[in-house]
Amino acid sequence: MNAILGDKVQAIAFRNLQRWAFEKNPTLGKLTKIQIEKVLDELKISKKDKGQFIFRKDEKCSKIVIPIEGNLIYVIRPGIG
To answer: Can you tell me the mean pLDDT for 38-53?
Structure first.
């Protein structure tokens, strides 16, 4: 299957996980199936290294983060906002 679909296998699996996350979320699950698909069409999959910041304190948040593998942790470091 991997030889036929190549790198698309992982993208398909991630999209299914994203769809499931939206459907199971109390707020995002209120969207229609069409609305969810349109949002998923705009999402980008990116890899973050361990210790890399996704959000910074006092930074305006303009993104939705859906962890597919790993964990998000809340960290406050002295001198880093």
So the answer is: 85
pLDDT given for residue 5 in this prediction: 67
Q: Cα separation of 15 and 10, whole Å?
A: 9
Q: Residues 31, 39: contact at Cβ < 8 Å?
A: yes
User: Which residues does 14 contact at the CB level (< 8 Å), separation at least 6?
Assistant: 45, 68
Q: Are 14 and 45 in contact (CB under 8 A)?
A: yes
Give the residue numbers spanning the domain of 12.
Answer: 2-42
- Which of 18-27, 47-56, 62-71 is the most confident on average? 18-27
Alpha carbon distances (Å) from 19 to 3, 30, 46, 80: 25, 13, 17, 34
Q: Is residue 56 part of a domain?
A: no
Total of domains in the chain: 1
Tokens of 43: 């999402």
